[in-house]
Design a protein that fits this description.
Hypothetical protein af1432, 12 helices, mainly alpha
Length: 209
């Protein structure tokens, strides 16, 4: 497979998605210049998610919306993000693993800010950081698009992207999960238990292919 990176605005599904794109762009462009690269990343995730959605027959509009909103709350304070959450359980999860704050809060933005009530899209945003067992194909696409989007230039990403473009999405998810765990352990950060569950699940999938 060859990733053809077209200008993103030209391939957005419809006016609804274009409005989400413009709102995200305006939000990030209004921040300090050091945050502008985050929107470039978001565009890259949306490009990759669109590409993969076509290959795996996943709803392109849902993939684009999830990709555009996956980092919507990336730079808010923990207090602001907590205010978006619905349950004490979600708050406790995020306190225990703060990297989840932006994913959980961004998933709530789907309905609370954009008025879209779609559990499948919400979960794809919510679980994009390191996934979960038994992911849907949409969840897998947003997860691996975040890791392999075309603006990522570091070696592990390039290797994983090359595997992904060979049609090996299970292997790509396994590689990205393993590399993330190794990076955390190298920096004396304890990986989340779910990361090990995802690693084992995708190792099994590869062995059964």
């Amino acid at each position: 497979m060859c990733l053809n990176v077209e200008p993103l605005y030209n391939i957005l599904y419809d006016d609804d998605v274009k409005n989400i794109y413009l709102k995200c762009k305006n939000k990030y462009m209004s921040l300090d210049e050091k945050y502008h690269n985050r929107f470039t990343h978001i565009e890259g995730v949306c490009q990759m998610a669109t590409f993969l959605a076509k290959i795996y027959n996943v709803d392109i509009k849902k993939a684009q919306i999830a990709a555009l909103l996956h980092d919507y709350f990336k730079y808010e304070s923990n207090e602001e993000m907590e205010a978006m959450l619905d349950t004490k359980e979600e708050v406790e999860e995020c306190k225990e693993c703060p990297v989840l704050y932006h994913a959980y809060a961004s998933s709530k933005a789907l309905s609370k800010i954009f008025g879209i009530y779609d559990k499948e899209i919400e979960n794809a945003i919510k679980y994009h950081v390191f996934g979960k067992p038994n992911m849907t194909k949409l969840e897998e696409i947003v997860l691996i698009s975040d890791y392999t989007e075309p603006n990522r230039k570091y070696d592990d990403c390039i290797k994983t992207r090359n595997v992904l473009l060979e049609g090996k999405i299970n292997e790509a998810i396994y590689m990205s999960t393993l590399q993330t765990i190794k990076h955390l352990e190298k920096n004396n950060i304890k990986p989340h238990p779910i990361q090990y569950e995802v690693l084992k699940e995708y190792e099994r999938k590869i062995n059964n292919e």
